[in-house]
Amino acid sequence: MSDAAGPLGLDRQDGDGDGVVTRVYLAALQHPEPTRSLLVAQGMKAPLVDHSLEVLQERGLVRLQPGGVIEVIPPDISLPTLALSYERRARETRSAAHELSQVFFQARAATTTPDAGTIRILNSLDEMAAVTAEAIATGTEIVRVFRAPSPRTDAIFDSPLHSHEEPSHGAGGIVLDMASVYDSRVLDLPDALTVLEARERGGERFRLTTSVPFSCVIVDDTAAIVDVSAFDPTGFGSALVRARAMVLALIALFDHFWTLGSPLQRAGSGSAAEQRDQLILSLLAAGAPDATIARQTGVSQRTVERRVRALMDQLGAGTRFQAGVQAGRRGLI
């Protein structure tokens, strides 16, 4: 990788080997009134400039205004916030790696010759859906779910709204307890909040967290359906797991995500502004970015940024995540 990315490291996550995102950012910093056309006039290719500006806006370093005007957020504000975001993601990824290592080693500890009947590889999204329905139909107590963005997740959220309001029934028609942890990125799906509210009416308890690497449905402590369609959109390589040690390891991973997760607080008492702030704090605690919060609250991203800063000051929080935590401790969400 080229050294052009420099100490900012803006290009590394996107694999831009020529450091174009960093170059666009530095060029915008150097002009008192930067515009898209000005950057292109400096010899940068228009598609790369557009891509870089989208990346920079997503990371909170610039705001794109009408007419190609670029508003650069002061680096002493934007860069520390970006760095804290990277640090939090790194901590959560390391934590997930530890839990997944438990899955790996526990699955191999019981026997040196795995029993092929305990793990069944699934070949498609349709097969995964069918196997999941069959497993839930045999359940007797609880279904635990952790869900990452994936083609399978998209299909579930695209289901008719009434289907989300139906409780999950197990053996003998009993209503199963349903507990789910969603990666906060699912809030970017169309009508995500409406779907989650419908599932809550159907008896599901849910929380939101960040950095869920894959999805899994665990029925009691007897079966788990591991969904890897985030890595292969056809669903091939997903698995029905009945090996008890591995199912217990996946339950431990669910418990970890549940502890990290935050419930989503929606409209309560108070004025419309107070209810909006309550939702903003709830989404902050779940790790949602400003763009997602803006969509879910129905206000502009700039308004969200102002309210987030005001709420952080009010709570004495140094970071967005700390604001969510402080709000939870004070009973505000």
From TrEMBL:
What Pfam family is a match, any one? GerE
Q: Enumerate the Gene3D superfamilies for this protein.
A: Winged helix-like DNA-binding domain superfamily/Winged helix DNA-binding domain
The UniProt record lists the HTH luxR-type domain at 275-327
* SMART domains per UniProt: HTH_LUXR
Query: Which InterPro entries does the record cross-reference, listed alphabetically?
Result: Sig_transdc_resp-reg_C-effctor (IPR016032), TrmB-like (IPR051797), Tscrpt_reg_LuxR_C (IPR000792), WH-like_DNA-bd_sf (IPR036388)
- Record-given protein name: HTH luxR-type domain-containing protein
Q: What is the lineage of its organism?
A: Bacteria, Bacillati, Actinomycetota, Actinomycetes, Micrococcales
